[in-house]
């Protein structure tokens, strides 16, 4: 039986009103997920997926449901601008769509991008499979919470054969409010056969607000589709952000994911991928940099379910101050997934004696003719490399900064977009100790 944390946060949602859509199956699914969340509560550290991330403090807090003033919150568009990256953008503030901050008048041909609230009004039956889902695993508390209370989000569809080279952006902002808020967004992204898309997902926060944000994202790549997905997480320093992204790849589909985790007091990203078609490929690269008292948790689970599929995952962690990082990477090769080629690596640096990183790579193989490897390390900067730089006249602090930045930057060297790669390098330079 799943042990759960019984807490004010959970009790306050018993009987709480879920968003009303007027769509019978959706309203019922929301109520059922709310009731399931309240019944199970928050998972404790005896649940394997939450072993290194305690939720006791979060459970003692109270949040207002949503933000009635989200449409009028003042947000400077410059805060989410990326140099030399323009184009269409869908913007949400405290979980609510903001048409005034979005840019949807330059959508390329073959692309449909709209808020979930509008998509439901236009034709909801195509969304039924995703939005009526129930989450039943012991660690699914925040998925249930999101499924119950998310009233908006992004619905993005790319037509078969359409090629979208310039990035589209999804922007999620936690804006200052009068109290602590809980907001939730639900994203549905679908690429038709042979389609190509570049997508940038930004999470930002302002001020010292201690909001809780949750996000569920479903990414469906049909046969031969290609997705380049960049995630830049810079949530507010006092906020909590819990996300789940699920990728489903059909035959010959390719997904390239680059993730930078910088913000939040508590930030968790649960990445799940199913390679269900022959020849599908997944490449994940990322870095997480907890500082101060930040807690950043990345959970990666890749399931190879078809023949000749490939996954390559390269992740780096850098912890300073009293920051704590968590990385769990699991690869499962199912029966019949012959010819799988899977590689997972996680290297980590500790920059202070009080910093901590817990890493756990896992590999399960139930097929033949498989090539797979995984590994993880936790350590400090190479003293020989430091000595070499010092012997060339580089001061100690600068030498450490050079080595640390190069270490954290490595997962993003494969990012083909020069503007995005440069932007990430600037974010790393600003975050890492100088």
What does this entry look like structurally?
There is one protein chain. The protein has 434 residues and is α/β, with parallel strands linked by helices. It has two domains: 4-74 and 87-381, no CATH class; 382-434, no CATH class. Helices cover 19% and strands 39% of the residues. The chain contains nine helices and 22 strands. The protein has helices spanning 8-11, 24-40, 56-59, 116-122, 128-131, 141-149, 383-391, 396-409, 418-431, and strands spanning 4-5, 42-43, 64-65, 89-93, 96-97, 111-115, 154-158, 163-174, 181-191, 196-205, 212-221, 226-234, 240-249, 254-261, 266-275, 281-288, 295-304, 310-319, 324-333, 341-350, 356-365, 371-379. Helix 7 packs across helix 8.
Q: Strand tally, please?
A: 22
Percent strand:
35-45%
Biggest sheet features: 10 strands, mixed
Uncertain parts: 1-5
Structural class: alpha/beta
Number of helices: 9
Query: Regarding quaternary structure, how should these chains be classified?
Result: single chain
**Radius of gyration, whole Å:** 21 Å
Distance between the termini: 48 Å
The domain count comes to: 2
Portion of residues within helices:
10-25%
Mean pLDDT: 93
Shape: globular
Topology:
Blueprint: E1 4-5, H1 8-11, H2 24-40, E2 42-43, H3 56-59, E3 64-65, E4 89-93, E5 96-97, E6 111-115, H4 116-122, H5 128-131, H6 141-149, E7 154-158, E8 163-174, E9 181-191, E10 196-205, E11 212-221, E12 226-234, E13 240-249, E14 254-261, E15 266-275, E16 281-288, E17 295-304, E18 310-319, E19 324-333, E20 341-350, E21 356-365, E22 371-379, H7 383-391, H8 396-409, H9 418-431
Parallel strand pairs: 3-9, 4-8, 7-9, 8-10, 9-11, 10-12, 11-13, 12-14, 13-15, 14-16, 15-17, 16-18, 17-19, 18-20, 19-21, 20-22
Antiparallel strand pairs: 1-2, 4-5, 6-7
Helix pairs in contact: 2-6, 7-8
């Amino acid at each position: 039986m799943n042990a759960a944390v019984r807490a004010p946060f959970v009790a306050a949602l018993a009987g709480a009103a879920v968003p009303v859509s007027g769509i019978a199956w959706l309203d019922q699914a929301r109520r059922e997920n709310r009731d399931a969340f309240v019944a199970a509560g928050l998972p404790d550290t005896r649940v394997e997926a939450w072993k290194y991330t305690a939720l006791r403090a979060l459970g003692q807090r109270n949040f207002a449901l949503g933000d009635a003033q989200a449409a009028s919150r003042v947000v400077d568009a410059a805060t989410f601008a990326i140099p030399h990256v323009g184009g269409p953008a869908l913007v949400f503030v405290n979980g609510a769509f903001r048409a005034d901050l979005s840019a949807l008048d330059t959508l390329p041909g073959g692309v449909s991008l709209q808020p979930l609230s509008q998509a439901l009004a236009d034709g909801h039956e195509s969304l039924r499979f995703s939005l009526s889902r129930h989450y039943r695993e012991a660690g699914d508390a925040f998925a249930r919470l999101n499924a119950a209370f998310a009233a908006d989000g992004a619905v993005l569809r790319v037509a078969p054969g359409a090629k979208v080279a310039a990035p589209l952006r999804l922007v999620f902002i936690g804006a200052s409010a009068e109290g602590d808020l809980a907001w939730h967004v639900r994203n549905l992204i679908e690429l038709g056969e042979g389609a190509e898309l570049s997508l940038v997902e930004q999470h930002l926060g302002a001020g010292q607000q201690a909001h809780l944000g949750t996000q569920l994202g479903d990414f469906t790549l049909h046969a031969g589709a290609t997705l380049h997905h960049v995630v830049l997480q810079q949530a507010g320093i006092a906020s909590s952000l819990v996300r789940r992204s699920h990728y489903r790849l059909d035959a010959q589909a390719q997904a390239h994911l680059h993730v930078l985790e910088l913000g939040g007091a508590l930030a968790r990203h649960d990445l799940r991928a199913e390679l269900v078609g022959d020849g599908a490929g997944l490449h994940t690269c990322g870095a997480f940099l907890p500082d101060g008292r930040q807690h950043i948790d990345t959970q990666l689970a890749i399931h190879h379910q078809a023949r000749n599929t490939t996954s390559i995952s390269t992740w780096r962690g850098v912890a300073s101050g009293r920051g704590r990082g968590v990385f769990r990477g699991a690869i499962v090769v199912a029966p019949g997934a012959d010819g799988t080629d899977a590689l997972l690596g996680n290297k980590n640096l500790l920059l202070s004696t009080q910093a901590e990183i817990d890493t756990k790579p896992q590999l399960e193989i139930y097929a033949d003719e498989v090539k797979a490897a995984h590994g993880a390390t936790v350590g400090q900067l190479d003293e020989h490399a430091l000595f070499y730089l010092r012997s060339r006249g580089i001061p100690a602090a600068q030498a450490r900064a050079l080595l640390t930045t190069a270490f954290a930057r490595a997962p993003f060297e494969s990012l083909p977009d020069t503007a995005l790669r440069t932007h990430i390098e600037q974010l790393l330079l600003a975050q890492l100790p100088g």
